[in-house]
């Protein structure tokens, strides 16, 4: 029996879960692509490639050379460039593209959100008065906060921030989620945090800090999601895996 080839653009918990779900179907050739930004990624259930493709054209060439039957974009909701390249590569190569896009968090009545469009806007939203801010962002997005040295920062990331930020008062935590509400509430309270800066990543793994901020009455500077290409998409691993299972049935070899 021949198999369909699937390339998953990953880097999220859902990408790993999807790879596992498709692997368990037992009839797909799977490869999971990681950007390589995390130094020690978690173990994956399928073969992994690490690094970029060289833009949309490079990804299109990779799809054609590998005879990939379907491309799945399961990257982070804020990986706008990768998602745009995936859509363009699918158009160039003719390989169908499906996206896994977890829904964002919805503002609750007790939430004190200030929604902004970018990290730079989040820096401005902190204001001129010194505050103790918790930054729950990727390492690559911290540099703009050097423009606001009056604040005291608590930075949490999966990998160490290297080189350290050129700021007079910053403390670093390295940790990998999920983070529960109770631990997040303790962290925010004991650190004297006055404002949380976050992306609207969605999902449960990092929602604890948002619930904790709500419980403590803390304001949250929430960076809105970027606009992503309109492609066929699903919100859950279960729904996308079921679609792939139905849309790409087993291929019977001649003579079978």
From TrEMBL:
Under which EC number(s) is this enzyme classified? 1.3.1.106
The entry lists its GO molecular-function terms as: oxidoreductase activity
Q: What class of enzyme is it?
A: oxidoreductase
Functional pathway: Cofactor biosynthesis; adenosylcobalamin biosynthesis
Q: Which UniProt keywords apply?
A: Cobalamin biosynthesis, Oxidoreductase
Lineage, top-rank taxon, reads Bacteria
Entries under PROSITE patterns matching the protein? COBK_CBIJ
Under the heading Pfam families, the entry gives: CbiJ (PF02571)
This protein is called Cobalt-precorrin-6A reductase
């Amino acid at each position: 029996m021949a198999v369909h080839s699937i390339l998953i653009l990953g880097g999220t918990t859902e990408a790993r879960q999807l790879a596992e779900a498709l692997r368990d179907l037992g009839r797909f050739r799977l490869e999971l692509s990681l950007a390589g930004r995390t130094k020690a990624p978690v173990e994956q259930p399928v073969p992994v490639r690490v690094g970029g493709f060289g833009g949309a054209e490079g990804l299109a060439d990779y799809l054609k050379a590998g005879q990939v039957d379907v491309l799945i974009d399961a990257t982070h909701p804020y990986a706008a460039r990768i998602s745009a390249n995936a859509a363009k590569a699918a158009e160039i190569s003719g390989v169908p593209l499906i996206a896994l896009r977890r829904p964002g968090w919805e503002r609750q009545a007790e939430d004190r959100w200030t929604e902004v469009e970018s990290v730079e806007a989040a820096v401005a939203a902190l204001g001129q008065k010194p505050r103790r801010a918790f930054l729950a962002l990727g390492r690559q997005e911290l540099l703009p906060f050097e423009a606001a040295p009056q604040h005291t920062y608590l930075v949490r990331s999966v990998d160490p921030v290297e080189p350290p930020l050129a700021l007079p008062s910053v403390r670093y935590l390295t940790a990998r989620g999920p983070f529960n509400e109770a631990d997040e509430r303790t962290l925010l309270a004991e650190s004297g945090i006055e404002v949380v800066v976050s992306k609207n990543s969605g999902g449960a793994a990092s929602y604890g800090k948002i619930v904790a901020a709500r419980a403590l009455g803390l304001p949250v500077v929430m960076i809105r999601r970027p606009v992503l290409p309109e492609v066929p998409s699903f919100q859950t691993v279960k729904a996308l895996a079921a679609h792939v299972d139905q849309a790409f049935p087993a291929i019977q070899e001649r003579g079978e």
